[in-house]
């Protein structure tokens, strides 16, 4: 008995343990299979019929060397890196400056602009109007078509604004008495005290740009400008085979298509997995605090 209530029986705990084990296995085994297939030798992949759970003949990085040899996948990886870095930087600048302006209640036009941001959370402009706007600005078939239309998220603006509103008013008032301009308040007080929420919002934008797929499919007709996720869709989901010319191998032997597909999948996953642990500790302090204070 604990606190007047009976402890769970042994049978109940065993059932819970078995249930959680099955769920973990259902999540982990496919991921292990993707890693193993991408690293297994070509002969083992061919013999297994295309999917290897545990490689038994050593580890072979041929699939990774093939897709990173300067062909289609390498180019798509560089494009995704450019879109992610540039897009995240632009998005953070726009979101933080807009969030700061909306958090200053004395700013001219503060309430109407805040109302517009809130309305954009409720109403989506739609696919055709968005396409027409991008077309009118001459961004079709340009990487800016993937970056600019999603450079400001209303949700992220609201979260950043709420965090700025919750900053100690005494510090801001003291700096203003000392003659600090609004720009200096933003740079030297707002940003340094809001590193947690900026890190989390930056992760949101970065993951969004890295996984950018639909906008690229919609606005980019030139396959040489495709980001990694669109290449992933074409050569992994749709099953289109990558030849030696596509991989930049020329007449060299091409690894099994399954190994290439799993290697592309791993390359698309690894960057997010590497960044996430460094940002995770900021989640509760950044987003939740900002949302509650809003």
UniProtKB/TrEMBL annotation:
Keyword annotations: Cell membrane, Membrane, Transmembrane, Transmembrane helix, Transport
Domain of life per record: Bacteria
Membrane-traversing stretches: 14-35, 76-101, 113-132, 144-164, 185-210, 260-279
Topology within the bilayer: Multi-pass membrane protein
Chief place of localization: membrane
Subcellular location: Cell membrane
Gene Ontology CC: plasma membrane
Entries under Gene3D superfamilies matching the protein: MetI-like
Keyword Nucleotide-binding set for record: no
The protein's name in its UniProt record: Carbohydrate ABC transporter permease
């Amino acid at each position: 008995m604990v606190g007047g209530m009976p402890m769970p029986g042994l049978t109940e705990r065993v059932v819970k343990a078995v249930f959680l084990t099955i769920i973990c296995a259902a999540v982990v085994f496919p991921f292990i299979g993707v890693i193993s297939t991408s690293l297994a030798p070509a002969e083992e992949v061919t013999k297994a019929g295309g999917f290897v759970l545990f490689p038994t003949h050593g580890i072979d990085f041929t699939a990774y060397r093939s897709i990173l040899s300067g062909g289609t996948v390498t180019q798509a990886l560089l494009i995704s890196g450019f879109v992610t870095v540039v897009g995240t930087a632009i998005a953070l600048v726009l979101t933080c400056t807009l969030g700061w302006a909306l958090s200053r209640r004395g700013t001219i036009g503060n309430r109407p602009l805040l109302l517009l941001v809130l309305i954009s959370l409720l109403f989506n402009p739609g696919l055709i109007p968005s396409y027409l706007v991008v077309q009118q600005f001459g961004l079709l078939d340009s990487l800016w078509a993937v970056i600019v239309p999603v450079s400001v998220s209303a949700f992220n603006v609201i979260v950043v604004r709420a965090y700025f509103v919750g900053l100690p008013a005494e510090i801001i008032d003291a700096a203003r008495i000392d003659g600090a301009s609004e720009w200096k308040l933003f740079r030297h007080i707002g940003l340094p005290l809001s590193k947690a929420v900026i890190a989390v919002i930056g992760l949101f934008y970065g993951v969004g740009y890295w996984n950018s797929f639909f906008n690229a499919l919609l606005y980019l007709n030139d396959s040489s400008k495709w980001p990694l996720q669109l290449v992933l869709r074409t050569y992994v989901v749709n099953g289109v085979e990558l030849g030696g010319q596509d991989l930049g191998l020329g007449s060299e032997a091409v690894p099994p298509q399954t190994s290439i597909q799993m290697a592309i999948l791993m390359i698309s996953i690894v960057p997010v997995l590497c960044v996430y642990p460094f940002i995770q500790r900021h989640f509760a302090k950044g987003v939740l605090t900002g949302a509650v204070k809003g």
